[in-house]
Amino acid sequence: MPLTPHPAGYDEDLRLALEDLLLDRWLSTKALLANTLSWALRTSRSQVLAAGAAKGDAIAAWCAEEPGDANAMMMRARVMTHRVLAARHSTADSHTLLLRVSAARVACEDAARRWPADPVPWVCLLALSQLDVDPRNWHQVDHWANPPEAMLPRGPWPLLWQVDRRDWPNREAYHRMLQCLQARGTGSVDFTRWVSSQARPGSVQLTLPLYAWVEEYRSRMASRQVASTLGFWDNEQVRHYVERARDGWFAHVTDMSTCSLLDLNYLAYTLTACGLPGAAEVFTAIGPFATPAPWQHVSESRWWQDDFLQARNYAMKRERNRR
After folding, report:
1. Structural domain span for residue 25
2. Closest to 104 in 3D by CA, of 73, 133, 140
């Protein structure tokens, strides 16, 4: 099966709206969000839409045309947040970045006031807290607090709790929390283990530790602290969380098209890296929609697609031999 990576994956309605956004047309996005009744789906769709809209002016045009529209205000917050997070890797000076962060936070707060029940503006505020990494400014940050349990680090817990009140458990919110802790370099693995320990059967939260383990592996490989792939992924603790994601989450999914493509790709990679069974079913669920992450983060070759295809072929061959 040839690869056709696309952020919309199996979501054809999202694909069409995204194509219009890339042409600076926003009406299909308005219609899509109006018909998106699930908070979880609203969160995931708006994230993909914002990444596409950040390249143009469609959302600004929508806000100018309908300044009081709750969905338009949410999308403005989404786009501004996306641009700020992208700008941190650019050559923008710290003062300019600070101004952009402040403007994005104002947009998020405006959207939250416009529709208090919507979790997405709070997810955006949580994403922006990744930039609160300068210890000299920590005393000025009022959304960082002590954790609910002693083993966990300080972090933007009040923002996460705001999302939890509106949509628990919101997948992106917990990923944004993880990214915040990773940006500060503290407690990320402990956080994912804590989240996983409280997750119910079938919960997508069981996949969160996979992201922490992949990032730890990438970091160790970059600093040459890991001699081989096998040396890291053969660890009993790592394998335990990969098996939990497979058996506690993936095995309970009835409609694969509703899954995050990232979650499926992370599970496929970690199952293959650990040498555990079940990867073939996950690759089947992925279909042609491979995602660059995690493959490009851990690839030793130039093309991450080659690593994906090699892992998929190995998993399928192993499954045929097992039968």
Report:
1. 1-186
2. 73
Which neighbouring-strand residues pair with 145?
155
Whether residue 138 is predicted with pLDDT greater than 80 in this model: the reply is no
Q: What is the DSSP string of 230-285?
A: HHHHT-HHHHHHHHHIIIIIGGG-S-GGGS-HHHHHHHHHHHHHHT-TTHHHHHHH
Instruction: Quick: pLDDT tens for 61-85.
Output: 999 999 999 999 999 999 999 999 9
* Same domain as 145, residue 212: no
In whole angstroms, give the CA distance from residue 204 to residue 248: 9
Same domain for 33 and 51?
yes
Query: Is the same domain home to 135 and 237?
Result: no
Shared domain check, 280 and 238: yes
If asked whether residues 226 and 109 sit together in one domain, one would say: no
Q: Helices (DSSP H) in the chain: which residue ranges?
A: 12-21, 27-34, 39-53, 58-65, 70-87, 94-114, 120-128, 157-166, 171-184, 188-198, 208-222, 229-233, 236-244, 261-274, 279-286, 292-298, 304-322
304 and 179 inside one domain: no
Taking the alpha carbons of 152, 154, 160, 164 in that order, is the dihedral positive or negative? positive
Residues in the chain: 323
